[in-house]
Specification:
With 152 residues, the protein is mainly alpha-helical. The chain is 71% helix and 0% strand.
């Protein structure tokens, strides 16, 4: 695969080259995609799985091309993770804002086993810690919304 194609996809269409907080920007883009697809469960699932699969396929190749372990410009993992965060949730603004900040916190603090996943080589190390952050976020939001009676 061409290193340029790998970098294009892994940086999520060059979003990762934003000079300030590229991971946060990519998370916001992922949240916007989730919001846009909120009424289309099949479309949402397809987009989420597609981004995740592309991340596993291209992130490791981009990492090799860049020559640095898990470089900050690779942000497809953030897009995947935030989409997992919001899967099967009612996407109202309070949920989006709460989920966004929860996801970013879990992504930064690497709660186990995410810390172990991050140490894996290649695409697995790049993608799995953010997938875990997305799962943590989704579970917390699902539980909170059920306990509050907001969803059943």
């Amino acid at each position: 695969m061409s290193p340029n194609i790998s970098k294009f996809i892994a940086t999520f269409f060059y979003t990762g080259y934003c000079p300030v907080a590229p991971g946060t920007l990519a998370s916001a883009i992922g949240a916007a995609i989730a919001f846009a697809l909120r009424f289309n469960v099949a479309g949402y699932a397809f987009a989420m799985v597609t981004v995740t699969v592309l991340g596993f396929f291209f992130a490791g190749e981009a990492e090799k091309a860049i020559g640095k372990k898990d470089p900050g410009c690779i942000v497809i993992d953030e897009v995947s993770g935030i989409m997992i965060s919001f899967f099967m949730l009612p996407l109202y603004w309070p949920i989006i804002v709460t989920g966004f900040f929860l996801f970013r916190a879990f992504d930064m603090f690497k709660i186990p086993p995410a810390d172990l996943f991050e140490k894996m080589p290649g695409s697995r190390g790049i993608m799995l810690d953010d997938i875990m952050a997305g799962i943590y976020t989704n579970l917390i939001l699902q539980i909170a919304l059920r306990l509050s009676g907001a969803i059943w």
